Amino acid sequence: MQNTNVNQYILQSVDNSLSLIELLCDHEELSLADMVSMTDYGKSSIFRMLNTLEKHKMVTKTENNRYRLGYRLATIGSIVTSRMEITGIAHPYLVDLSARTKETTHLAVLVDDTKVQFFDKVRGDSSIWMESSVGMTRKAHLTGTGKAQLAFCDEAQIESYIKNTEFSQMTRYTIKDEKELREELDRIRQQGYACDKEESEEGLVCFAAPVVNFKGKVVAAVSISGFRDKMYARQDEFIREIKETARQISAELA
């Protein structure tokens, strides 16, 4: 089979800009002239790339017209590190919960104020098939883990979410409008957990609880999912279990 040439899918301007960032990783400061001499890019191209990176706080320009890495990269690095950390901390708890309940458990993080991304998944013994997979994203209001985090966002974030969301019906139980979503978020804040009652997949029910960091900020959510009949039959037990699992993970993050 012929290998696909991945280079044909690379956007050259982005690739070049990232090369400048890598160059600055190896040098505390560089001038425009330094970068021209150290790369094959033209002076005007480097100038435009640096201006773009500076706009996004990826690089910063010093008083003597030299460039260094910007604080936004430190923020991004911190986010990546914390997300890797939370997965490592949460995984044993997800394994334990799945082993005890025989159901599937998830860890998910709200990644851009509109979607949750599944960071971890431990399959239970249940035969029910579910679409979720590690790395997959979904609109927050379609999942228990998404709603468990969205409920504790500030009002501006919730307003932005509603403004940028089409309430398409995945199933007959999917939240259909702003009013229904706000009522659901109010319930979640009051009870401390969220439910996905066949809202994203027919027959699939999920209970989720938020995970908080040392500042008390919600940074993720964990869930237990399974077939409707079994989940409802053991609802009180599973809700206690998922809230306790979230509490234990939060305690480790603190």
UniProtKB/TrEMBL annotation:
Gene3D superfamilies: 3.30.450.40, Winged helix-like DNA-binding domain superfamily/Winged helix DNA-binding domain (1.10.10.10). InterPro entries: GAF-like_dom_sf (IPR029016), HTH_MetabolicPath_Reg (IPR050707), Tscrpt_reg_IclR_C (IPR014757), Tscrpt_reg_IclR_N (IPR005471), WH-like_DNA-bd_sf (IPR036388), WH_DNA-bd_sf (IPR036390). One of its GO terms (biological process) is negative regulation of DNA-templated transcription. Keywords: DNA-binding, Transcription, Transcription regulation. Signal peptide: none annotated. It comes from the Bacteria. It holds the Pfam family HTH_IclR. Residues 11-71 form the HTH iclR-type domain. GO terms for molecular function: DNA binding; DNA-binding transcription factor activity. PANTHER family: HELIX-TURN-HELIX TRANSCRIPTIONAL REGULATOR, ICLR FAMILY, HTH-TYPE TRANSCRIPTIONAL REGULATOR RV1719. This is IclR family transcriptional regulator. It comes from Enterocloster bolteae (strain ATCC BAA-613 / DSM 15670 / CCUG 46953 / JCM 12243 / WAL 16351) (Clostridium bolteae).
